[in-house]
Design goal:
The protein is an alpha+beta fold and 70 residues long. 19% of the residues lie in helices and 14% in strands. The strands form 2 sheets. The protein has a two-stranded antiparallel sheet with strand order 1-2. A two-stranded antiparallel ribbon has the order 3-4.
Length: 70
């Protein structure tokens, strides 16, 4: 898993270190480290496409699999 810290120290799971803030500004990317965990959670991603926290992923997986965190 690719994990990045938010501005307030929250840990989120996302492949890239930056994210498009919305669908209306193509080509614009914002570093995850510049956003708080609440701001990341509020990004408009669509149904079932939210950027999860590391805690949420660990809770979902439980002991069913090993997680490799980067």
């Amino acid at each position: 898993l690719d994990v990045h810290a938010s501005r307030d120290g929250g840990l989120v799971v996302h492949h890239d270190a930056d994210v498009a803030p919305d669908q209306h500004t193509p080509g614009v990317r914002v570093p995850l480290a510049s956003l708080t965990a609440a701001e990341i959670a509020a990004l408009p991603r669509g149904p079932d496409r939210a950027i999860p926290t590391l805690d949420a992923v660990c809770a979902l997986v439980g002991s069913a699999a090993r997680l490799y965190v980067e």
